[in-house]
């Protein structure tokens, strides 16, 4: 079936353009841009048409905690949020550290999720930091990257060996750049706010120290490396130096660190407890500036479902994390509406750059690319109601907030998986 979408505002992250045009889809691929109108004609009446979001670092709680999130519920949430490809974390129970576990979750994802799923695997067995996994076998089973998530490997020799082996196989390693001893037990960023609230805090230097170590190891081994979350201004200079020195290093930032700051915690609101903790406003602005100049490459949702019981606890004891598959898009538009970046630049960080980093064909508007697309209205206002989210868990910090941006339709290989056209 051939469909031509006309009167669309095409958001092209590769060319950094935002212009009216048309696009034709056939057999799951983009077959023409501004070509002749063939097949079924769909008039988008000025709505935006962009590549679907590619979201790295999504936690889906299978196996082990299916009551928090399943592939079916996460897939529905992703489709509703304009996410057409989710790249899942291995911090499940048990961890995804063997080909057998990876194949189990891949089959479950293929069966239950309406969007594409690419799994990451652990870098060490059980994410314990002592023995590396069988990277080659896990690559063959479909792992697109390797990470121990927030379990930072403290044994530098083990980490160096894992990076060396990953380099020999061309595997991407994703690191969590926090110095683990300083960060242990912390739930806020050190400063006046944390002191007034009496919260255990960690200095922003813990991030700088973690990043410095990882960059040194990347320089030693030549590995492909991605820092999952850069959240402080202190981490920007070493990241810039690593890139200037030609190291194969990229970095991401979570949507929460891009749009919220430590003051949002207010009177111990646990939906704002995330890892790393929210930073000061100066750090948040520095993240946007780093995104605008290309120092930070990718925006992640860092979707982390938690049930009500684990969040309705004193702030120090509450679980960290927030759901974000459905809030990633409207929250990210806040940065555009602030005037600090434009829509094509935002979409490069949401779609093109993560696809490029993982070697995926998605994330672009060009002939031959998969027709994984999203149609949206960037100015449609709404009030966020967490109980309307499709995720099983409802722990969003944006509950009750005024937001803008409505997903009209999400297509995976040309097939409608959410909305109407």
Task: Explain what the structure shows.
GO terms for molecular function: allantoinase activity; dihydroorotase activity; metal ion binding. One of its GO terms (biological process) is pyrimidine nucleotide biosynthetic process. The protein is built from 13 helices and 17 strands. With 421 residues, the protein is α/β, with parallel strands linked by helices. Strands 1, 2, 3, 4, 5, 15, 16 and 17 form an 8-stranded mixed sheet that branches. Strands 9-12-13-14 form a 4-stranded parallel sheet. Strands 6-7-8 form a 3-stranded parallel sheet. Strand 7, helix 2 and strand 8 form a beta-alpha-beta unit. The longest helix has 17 residues, at 205-221.
Q: How would you describe this structure in keywords?
A:
TIM Barrel, 23% strand, alpha/beta, four-stranded parallel sheet, 421 residues
Summarize the structure in short.
Helix content is 30%, strand content 23%. It is of the alpha/beta class.
Work out the radius of gyration: 21 Å
Give the termini distance in whole angstroms: 15 Å
Query: Oligomeric status of the shown chains?
Result: single chain
The number of distinct β-strands equals 17
Shape designation? globular
Relative strand content: 15-25%
Task: State the helicity in percent bands.
Answer: 25-40%
CATH topology, what is it called? TIM Barrel
Ranges with pLDDT <50 over ≥5 residues? none
**CATH architecture type:** Alpha-Beta Barrel
Pfam families: DHOase
EC number: 3.5.2.3
InterPro entries: DHOase (IPR004722), DHOase/Allantoinase_Hydrolase (IPR050138), DHOase_cat (IPR024403), Metal-dep_hydrolase_composite (IPR011059), Metal_Hydrolase (IPR032466)
GO cellular component, one term: cytoplasm
């Amino acid at each position: 079936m051939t469909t031509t979408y006309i009167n669309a505002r095409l958001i092209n992250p590769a060319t950094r353009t935002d212009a009216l045009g048309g696009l034709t889809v056939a057999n799951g691929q983009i077959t023409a841009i501004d070509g002749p109108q063939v097949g079924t004609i769909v008039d988008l009446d000025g709505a935006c048409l962009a590549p679907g979001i590619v979201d790295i670092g999504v936690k889906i709680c299978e196996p082990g905690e299916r009551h928090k999130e399943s592939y079916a519920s996460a897939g529905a949430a992703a489709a509703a949020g304009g996410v057409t490809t989710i790249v899942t974390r291995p911090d499940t129970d048990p961890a995804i550290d063997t080909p057998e576990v990876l194949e189990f979750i891949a089959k479950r994802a293929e069966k239950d999720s309406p969007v594409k799923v690419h799994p990451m695997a652990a870098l060490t067995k059980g994410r314990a930091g002592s023995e590396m996994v069988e990277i080659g076998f896990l690559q063959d089973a479909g792992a697109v990257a390797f990470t121990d998530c927030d379990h930072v490997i403290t044994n530098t020799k083990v980490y160096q060996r894992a990076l060396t082996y990953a380099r020999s196989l061309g595997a991407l390693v994703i690191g969590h750049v926090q110095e683990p001893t300083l960060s242990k037990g912390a739930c806020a960023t050190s400063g006046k706010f944390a002191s007034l609230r009496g919260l255990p805090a960690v200095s922003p230097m813990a991030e700088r120290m973690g990043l410095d170590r990882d960059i040194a190891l990347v320089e030693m081994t030549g590995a492909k490396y991605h820092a999952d979350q850069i959240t402080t201004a202190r981490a920007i200079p070493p990241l810039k130096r690593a890139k200037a020195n030609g190291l194969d290093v990229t970095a991401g930032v979570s949507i929460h660190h891009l749009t919220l700051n430590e003051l949002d915690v207010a009177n111990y609101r646990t939906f704002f407890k995330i890892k790393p903790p929210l930073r000061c406003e100066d750090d948040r602005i520095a993240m946007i500036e780093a995104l605008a100049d290309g120092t930070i490459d990718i925006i992640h949702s860092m979707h982390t479902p938690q049930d009500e019981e684990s969040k309705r606890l004193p702030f120090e004891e509450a679980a960290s994390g927030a759901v974000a598959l459905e809030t990633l898009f409207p929250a990210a538009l806040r940065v555009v509406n602030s005037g600090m970046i434009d829509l094509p630049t935002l979409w490069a960080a949401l779609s093109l750059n993560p696809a490029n980093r993982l070697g995926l064909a998605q994330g672009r508007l060009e002939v031959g690319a998969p027709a994984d697309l999203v149609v949206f209205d960037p100015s449609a206002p709404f009030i966020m109601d967490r109980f309307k989210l499709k995720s099983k868990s409802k722990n969003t910090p944006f509950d009750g907030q005024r937001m803008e941006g409505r997903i009209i339709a999400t297509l995976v290989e040309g097939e409608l998986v959410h909305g109407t056209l």
